[in-house]
Each structure stands twice: as C-alpha cells, then as structure tokens.
Amino acid sequence: MVEIQRVSKSFKKSVNDGTSEVRALSDVNLSIRANEFLSIIGPSGCGKTTLLKIIDGLIPFDGGQILIDGKKVTAPGPDRAVVFQTFALLPWRTVLANVEFSLELRQVPKEQRIATARDHLRNVGLADFENHYPHELSGGMQQRAGLARALAVNPTILLMDEPFGSVDAQTRQLLQEELLELWQRERKTVIFVTHSMDEAVYLSDRVAVMTPRPGRVAEILEVPLPRPRSAEEVRRDPRFAELTNYIWHSLKKGMENGR
Known about the structure:
globular, alpha/beta, 4-stranded antiparallel beta sheet
C-alpha cells in the first residue's frame, strides 16, 4: 500500500527582481491499495508529475510523508519503476540492451539479465526486435520497450507519467489494451498520470481528480466497470459516459473556481 499524507511541495522561480515561490502541491492525501490501478487526472500544472516523482523518491518535498508498506520514502528504491511520456531509450543501445540497462545497474549477472530482458520483450510483443535500435522502431514500439525495461526489474509499484501521450490515437488504444492485459497478468500496483478522462476511466479501479495549482486531491472516484475489460464493451456501457462526463464537469468547475 502507498500512503500519501499531507504532502506539499514548492519550487523557486526566477523573476526579474529575484525569485518567487510557486506552490505546486498543497496538503495532498491519497491512499493507493496494493495491486490497484489508480489514475491521477487534473488540469495542466496541477502537480501530477511532481507528485509521481515524489512517490518515486526522485525529488524532495516540503511537508508530509510518503509511506510504502509502512516505510517512509526518502529515495528511489527497487520496489518502484517509472515509465515516462518520452520514451527515454538510450539511442546507442539495442532494444535488448536498453531493457537490460536497469538490471545492469543492479549488477545482475549478464546471462540472467539477458534472459529476463528477453522474457519481458516477449511479453510486450518485441521478441523479434531485440537487435534493433530505438530509431528503427515506431513510437508505439519504443513505448513498449520502455515498459519492458520498467517491468524487467520486477517492481511492485509501476509509476506511469502520461506514457501514451506522444503516440497517435490508434496506437494509444492498442497500448491501453496491452497495458491492461499486462496488469491483469502481473498485478502490479499502478499509479497512472493522464490528461485523458476516457483513458483514466477505461484503465482504472479508481480515479483521483486534482485541483488546479496548488494541486490537492479534490475527490476519488470508484470505476464501477467489471474486469476484464474490452474497449468496445466499456465504451458502450452508459456508466463509462456518465463517469467521464462527471470528471469533465468536476475539472471544469475546479478550473473556473481557480481563476
């Protein structure tokens, strides 16, 4: 379980006559259950990515605490892995070597890391592309490689920062379906940042809606759609339209109140 308790974060911003403080997050409270798929949605600049980086231990925060299974988060750990919107693949390494990279950092023996990397490339449909370089892959394939690299270290928590935001609509839907299949099989705890209301509802067990900056959790919505899910069935379900419309009106109201 991930417990976010009264977390706040400010940044210093340079201005003409010195610096000013930008409050990104204020008193954020959120609990994520083990093996849950939770999406975080909110307006641009509300601190979604900042919160994800704090959970991963990449940046410090000003107040509050993050607990994972009762232990305070103070730095990155092997229980967490991040998938970014930008593919972040190393261009001089093959696909296989990219997936191996995080295992190399953990000093996993070569034969073991190659076998592990190949297993995960197979799981994301890239078994035939292990010797290709990133520039030889489509955007969707590059994102699959990034996902395989994150899963290769066997994290219990997968942090995903708008991972499908830079691919076309058709590829995005295919990647969503593949991610659900992987999640159903792996049962990781997934914390998924997105701007898309459709995506949040389709993928998630719950959706956390954030306010405009300084970001706080305005409400947490249960997604009452059965699993396993198919995109066609979900989008025909009237509850899907009701919930996406509700989220839109909630975000719109928050932005209007924040003006």
